[in-house]
Amino acid sequence: MGEVKVIGSTSSLFCTRVEWALKLKGVEYEYMHEDLRNKSPLLLKHNPVHKKVPVILHGDRAVAESLVILEYIDDTWKQNPLLPEDPYERSMARFWAKFSDEKAISQASPAVELGKTIMGEVKVIGSTSSLFCTRVEWALKLKGVEYEYIHEDVRNKSPLLLKHNPVHKKIPVILHRDRAVAESLVILEYIDDTLKQNPLLPEDPYERSTARFWAKFGDEKVRISVLNSLPWSEGEEKEKAIESARESLSFLEEQIEGKTFFGGEKIGFLDLAVGWIPLWLGIMEQIGEMKLLDAEKFPSLHEWSQNFIKIPLIKEALPPREELVDYFTPSVSYMRSLASQKQ
Ligand SMILES: N[C@@H](CCC(=O)N[C@@H](CS)C(=O)NCC(=O)O)C(=O)O
């Protein structure tokens, strides 16, 4: 009957249940990632009524509404039945599935409500070129939270930023229910505590502390050691800085060895914290004329880096490479001119 395509978003629980059904039936499908902030003509064409994901395309037909899709899948592929045979039991399964969507989800905790917030309830004060802001966007997307982005020019800070982050005067800041939270790693934890679905931190206290430890290490050691190698174009200072950056990367290599993500099978807190490596580190390598994340020296970190950046939800929040090059180039030239004056 033709191939199966799923128009969906990995952060949507409604899409995930469709994926589960297809996998249980052993049906292969192509996943077409939808950016819900900027809906595609394909989605609007195939679900003009609700304009929502998931939609499955089977041959030349489209089916929308996840529970309807599950029944379609069950009717079409008979192996591993999802609904029982007995009509009463079938009706009970349908009754409770509907109940769970209409009552349990929508009337659940404020945490779930956060995931469904309309634009405007969660605001991010940020700048697309900031790696600290991007990690916050990733966390919100993973949780399925819609948010309004308030672009900040850090070279000319707004009264809004200064009001909500008077201590550091830095981005990102998130505004949620008239309250402000600053410092990106603190924001990730706030998001994780507020919205329980798709947890970022593991449950186990020791594993949580380990993720926090390495996230802090990533910001304070890895990132700083990379920045320290930028002011020098060559010479002993540069060699020393590169060596120190490689040493800190080797700790991360040990953390990712044998795993798909730092969080295990799923993206977790530490993946978001060091998620700047695939793009930002590459740009610093380019502008700084150096190679740090060598595939031979750091095979696991290198592989993670390549895979992480290809995940649609991660990719869609990344700034264009050129924007970052333009942003960092003048700062590096400036650092270099200061360093050469000192020499
Ligand atoms: N530790 C902070 C660092 C944030 C940060 O450095 N933000 C930069 C943008 S990438 C900023 O706001 N810079 C403005 C400034 O330093 O005045 C966090 O994790 O949020």
From TrEMBL:
| Protein name, per record | Probable glutathione S-transferase
Example of a GO cellular component annotation carried by this entry: cytoplasm
Question: Which organism does this record belong to?
Answer: Rhododendron griersonianum
What does the similarity note say? Belongs to the GST superfamily. HSP26 family.
- The EC designation for this entry is 2.5.1.18
Asked if the keyword Amino-acid biosynthesis belongs to this entry, the reply reads no
Q: Which InterPro entries match?
A: Glutathione-S-Trfase_C-like (IPR010987), Glutathione-S-Trfase_C_sf (IPR036282), Glutathione_S-Trfase (IPR040079), Glutathione_S-Trfase_N (IPR004045), GST_C (IPR004046), GST_C_Tau (IPR045074), Omega/Tau-like (IPR045073), Thioredoxin-like_sf (IPR036249)
Q: Ranges for the GST N-terminal domain?
A: 2-81, 120-199
The record's listing under PANTHER family reads: GLUTATHIONE S-TRANSFERASE (PTHR11260:SF614), GLUTATHIONE S-TRANSFERASE, GST, SUPERFAMILY, GST DOMAIN CONTAINING (PTHR11260)
Q: Which residues form the GST C-terminal domain?
A: 204-328
